[in-house]
Amino acid sequence: MSWGRDVPDPELVLRPAPVAGGLEPQLLPPTREAIRAGVAARADAYAPEWTERRPGDAGVALLRTHGTLAEAVHLRLNRLPRRVSLDQLDLAGVHPLPGSPAGATLAIQLADGLPSPLELPAGTVFVTAAGPDGPVLETADGFTALPGRVAAAAARSSGVLLSDHPDDLGGLQPFGARPAPPAEFWVAIDTAATPAGVLALAVELVPEAGRPAASAIAIEAGDPPPVLRWEAVTATGAAELAVERDGTRALTRGGVIAFRIDTPDPWTPVPPPGRPGDPPLRWLRARLITADFPGGARLHRIRLNGVPATAARSVRDEVAEPAQRLAGGRSVYRLSQLPVLPGSVQLEITDDAADPFGTGAADGPESWHEVLSLAGADPGDRVFVLDPGAGELTFGDGAQGRAVPDGYRNVIARLYRAGGGTSGLPAPGDVLPPERSTPGLTGAAVLSITTGSDAEAQPALLRRGPAAIRSRLRAVAPEDYATLALGTPGVDIARAHCLPGQDPAAPGGSLPGTVGVVVVPRTTPGQGPPAPSAETLAVVAGYLARTAGIVGAQVVTVGPRYRQIAVQGLLVGAPGSDLATLVSIARDRIDSWLDPVTGGDGSGWPFGGTVRWDAMVRVLLDGVPYLEAASQLSFRVDGRRLAPCTDVPFRPGELAWPGGHILEAVQGSGPAGPA
Q1: What is d(CA 632, CA 182) in angstroms, rounded to the nearest whole number?
Q2: Residue 373 has what pLDDT?
Q3: DSSP labels for 407-441?
Q4: Angle, CA of 342, 345 and 347, to the nearest 5°
Q5: For residue 177, is pLDDT > 90?
Q6: Which of 123, 295, 541, 668 could disulfide-link 628, Cβ–Cβ 3.0 to 4.6 Å?
Q7: CA 46, CA 65: separation in Å to the nearest integer?
Q8: Helices 32-46 and 58-78: angle between axes, nearest 10 degrees
Q9: Ordered DSSP codes for 478-535
Q10: How far apart are the first and last CA of the chain?
Q11: Which of 446, 462, 452, 516 minimizes the C-alpha distance to 490?
């Protein structure tokens, strides 16, 4: 934005702000005290006859009132640069990214002694501790919950190796250390009920250091998974099971795998092969058919009755309420549950204008679908634009998109989903009760859960907006890949970084035609460094390669490599200051500065950014009250201590993660601090 030649630079005050460059102009004095001081400074020149300037004087009262009232006006006027920037982004088609719901894996719990399996439909809702107004977890798939438990697991390559602790398999390799056909993996189910319908197992892998289990494998998400043949071991032999869904990609990542139980012979309990003295159980067997199973896959635990879920609620058959009629003929309708998930609205509208009394045979309702913009719509297109945060549906005017036909309560959302955000979510290990009482269903244990994300805030939009306009939804320059990765539908990305001509999975060499993208999701405090799931990496890679990137470019997505940085040093506090509080604030300040998502200048620690000891000193002195000095400062990187006053350089694609700091505090000289 240009402010003209008539505004000299010294008079243009800039203040820190969450905009590109980190500064925005301050047009007017922002506080009532500053406004009053400006008026008082002009009093001698404009009102020399005003000599009574005591607190009880009418002129003084008027000046103070003016400062109080003008403060609110100045506050709004100072927001003009930001407001203009936001309006420009909106006109250019750059809108805030909507929030996304958390995804979870649940293990359904049944009542003891239940004699038969229990059918659970998709959409079964479990409530969280946040109460009726908080988030819920809704199952994504239907299956048949089986009473019992997973009793054992076995890897059979030469003989049978059993683990009697399926809740902690200790890194069991399902097909041995060197997986090759005809290796087998066995799972035993202890149940008195006869399996039927769809049987589901939740599989969790042992995470790699600093990453979830499937991150490394997800780099090759475009390749077909290994081929497994699943069988039920019956008294007369093995019967193949049809795989309904496989979220584990053949046991190479964590997820849920479901089988259709439709065997010609009864699936009866039998002892494991080679162990005739063991109690009979119902055994599943996975036979490795191809030789491309990754040797690094290690199992953490397997749970019966696993099901994926999302922190969103399905709303059915809701009549959208008219909100307003816009200039030009467009109309806006509103849904009740917020925020609405983009792409989830199934809308039907009935045109009953020709038959207002409904006496004739009405034509069926017409389906309308969501689009990003009405700008390119034809006059007859049955489309609408969704504002997820406000739950508003904007329809065309008959020139760009069809106008909503006249009628009463004729705009009906047959289905939409509402949810998203990071607050009120349960933690792994929590047991959630069902929303509706179902005989035999007692609850669901949370095995794993992602953080979800809130809708994009204004500061993040202002930083992303110019790059999004420059890319125009197509990746040409390397930085475009990072910008477009942030807008990948259906995933929660906090940051992304492009490594052109590099394969992050095999660093060290230049690979023309390859685009490496490092993906950083949001994180929840206390859960370690933010690392993307295998599903997130696969979705981002597919979106960039097929939709937004250059044709022929190979996109490789990975999580960042973290280097743990611990600070060791001596803090000198002002006399009388609370040294324990001083150390606590210093730790928090260091952690905030090194945070990969919100550290650095507020937009996350820079990829490949060097950790400088002098910058660390400034961070402490500027951010810790009553700190006089920070001496003997040194870094411990991944457990190795460096010499004092030594910087820590990072490679591209590397980020900092704060470690356990060793800080001591002593009293110094100077102004007295708080007792």
Answers
A1: 60
A2: 86
A3: -SS-EEEEEEEEE--STT---TT-EE-BSS--TTE
A4: 150
A5: no
A6: 668
A7: 19
A8: 130
A9: HHHHHHHHHT-TT---SEEEEEET--TTSTTS--TTEEEEEEE----TTS-S----HH
A10: 49
A11: 452
pLDDT at 611: 92
Helix residue ranges, H only, 139-179: none
**Amino acid residing at 144:** T
**Would strands 228-234 and 306-310 be described as parallel, antiparallel, or unpaired?**
unpaired
Q: pLDDT at residue 649 above 90?
A: yes
Q: 97 burial class (0-12, 13-18, 19+ CB within 10 angstroms)?
A: buried
Mean pLDDT estimate for the chain: 84
Amino acid found at 93: G
Pairing of strands 431-432, 366-370: unpaired
Strand partners, 284: 187, 232
Nearest to 243 by CA among 258, 227, 228, 265: 258
| pLDDT of 78 above 90 | no
**Exposure on the CB side of residue 480, measured as CA atoms within 13 A:** 15
pTM for the full predicted model: 0.75
Question: Six-digit token pair at 482?
Answer: 């990072």
Is a pLDDT exceeding 60 seen at residue 208? no
Residue 440 or residue 472, greater confidence: 440
- Cα separation, 418 vs 411, in Å, equals 18
147-304: CATH topology? Jelly Rolls (2.60.120)
Burial of 298 (0-12, 13-18, 19+ CB in 10 A): middle
- Dihedral of alpha carbons 199, 259, 298, 448, sign: negative
- Say if residue 121 is preceded by a cis peptide, omega within 30 of 0: no
The pLDDT score that the predictor gives to residue 5 is: 38
In this prediction, residue 353 carries a pLDDT of 66
Neighbours of 133 (CB within 10 A): 6
Tokens of 667: 């009293």
Nearest to 96 by CA among 395, 340, 424, 454: 454
Structure confidence by residue, pLDDT tens digits, 545-603: 877 777 667 888 888 889 999 999 999 998 888 999 999 999 999 999 999 988 887 77
| Centroid of chain to Cα 254 | 18
Tokens of 478: 């390397």
| Cα(544)–Cα(311) distance, integer angstroms | 26
Counting DSSP H helices and E strands in the chain, the numbers are 9, 36
Task: For helices 478-486 and 458-471, give the axis angle rounded to 10 degrees.
Answer: 130
- Check residue 284 and give its pLDDT: 93
Total number of residues shown for the chain: 675
Spans of all domains in the chain: 9-91, 97-146+306-311+420-455, 147-304, 316-353+363-411, 458-558, 561-667
Taking each helix axis as running N to C, give the angle between helix 80-91 and helix 458-471, from 0 to 180 degrees, rounded to the nearest 10.
Answer: 40
Contacts of residue 549, Cβ cutoff 8 Å, sequence gap at least 6: 475, 481, 484, 515, 555
22 has pLDDT over 80: no
**427: pLDDT strictly greater than 60:** yes
Cα distances (angstroms) measured from residue 91 to each of 155, 300, 471: 59, 50, 16
